[in-house]
Structure formats: structure tokens, C-alpha cells
Design a protein that fits this description.
With 156 residues, this protein is mainly alpha-helical. Helix content is 51%, strand content 9%. A two-stranded antiparallel ribbon has the order 1-4. It has a two-stranded antiparallel ribbon with strand order 2-3. A hairpin with a 7-residue loop joins strand 2 and strand 3. Helix 1 packs antiparallel against helix 4 and helix 2 runs antiparallel to helix 3. It is globular.
Length: 156
């Protein structure tokens, strides 16, 4: 699931303050070879990672490189305890039935962020705020990041 939502700045600041207070002094583990994975992805970014299915006309099958990219993006996701707690705290701010100002994308057996990352390519993804799809910004940070994000997404 990938969620984009809107909340008051004060709530963003409260959530971030609480996350920092709860942050344990244990170092966060970073995937062992992010730069190597990015170099590999840059070398493959202009190639399709899918091929037409020989058994189902009109369908596509993921190639080995698509699975490798998905595994790389999953490995880059910070699923440490304190980040998961922050994600849960953020999600608790939104009603389960959804409301105006909330966008949710769900992909069965797939990651909406991985699909976006595949479409954009590594250099555009690295210009997006946050870390591989995760970010929590107040209004001022949104205004500062918006032009860069629009450029990365190719929006006008």
C-alpha cells in the first residue's frame, strides 16, 4: 500500500517529535550495497524488464531483472521498528474509510512505489523527497519540494 494524505502542520511536527523521542540509539541498518544496486539499475533503466507472455496473448511477464529491481527496492525500504511505529502513527491519523485529501494505492502482490520507480527510473526517483517512497513533510517543506517532485514526475 502507498498512501498520500494531508494533515495539519502541528500534527506532522508532533508525530516527528514523538518519533525522535522514541528513537533508540541503535544504528539504522542500511542495505549493504545501495550504490551498487543503483549502478545496476541505471544500466538497466532504459531496457524493458517485461516480455510478452508466450502462453497468454496480450499479457506480460516479469523478467529476472524486474524481480531483481523489486528485491532491491524492497531492501531499500526502512522497516526498522521506529520507522514502522512512525508509519503506524501517521496512518492512525486517517479514518479507515478514507476521506477527502487522502490517496491510497494498493497493488496485489506488488508495490505501488516499485511500479512508480520502474516507470521513472533511478535518477528521477532519487530526486523525490524522502527515502524510496517514504516521507512526511510539513506545508513549508511541501512547497520547497514540489518543484523538484514535479520535475522528477514530468508534470507541468
Amino acid at each position: 500500500m502507498w498512501v498520500v494524505g494531508v494533515m495539519p502542520d502541528e500534527k506532522v511536527w508532533d508525530l516527528l517529535r514523538a518519533a525522535v523521542q522514541d528513537l533508540s540509539p541503535v544504528p539504522v541498518s542500511v542495505p549493504r550495497d545501495v550504490s551498487g544496486g543503483l549502478d545496476w539499475w541505471r544500466g538497466k533503466a532504459r531496457e524493458s524488464m517485461f516480455s510478452e507472455s508466450p502462453t497468454s496473448p496480450g499479457s506480460w511477464s516479469a523478467d529476472e531483472d524486474a524481480f531483481r529491481l523489486s528485491a532491491f527496492l524492497d531492501a531499500c525500504r526502512d522497516d526498522s521498528e521506529h520507522v514502522e511505529a512512525l508509519r503506524d502513527a501517521v496512518m492512525d491519523q486517517f479514518p479507515s474509510d478514507g476521506e477527502e485529501g487522502l490517496f491510497v494505492a494498493v497493488a496485489r502482490k506488488a508495490s505501488p512505489f516499485s511500479a512508480l520507480a520502474y516507470a521513472l527510473g533511478p535518477d528521477a526517483v532519487l530526486r523525490l523527497p524522502g527515502w524510496f517512497g517514504d516521507f512526511l513533510l510539513d506545508a513549508e517543506q511541501v512547497r520547497a519540494q514540489l518543484p523538484v517532485a514535479e520535475e522528477a514526475l514530468g508534470l507541468t
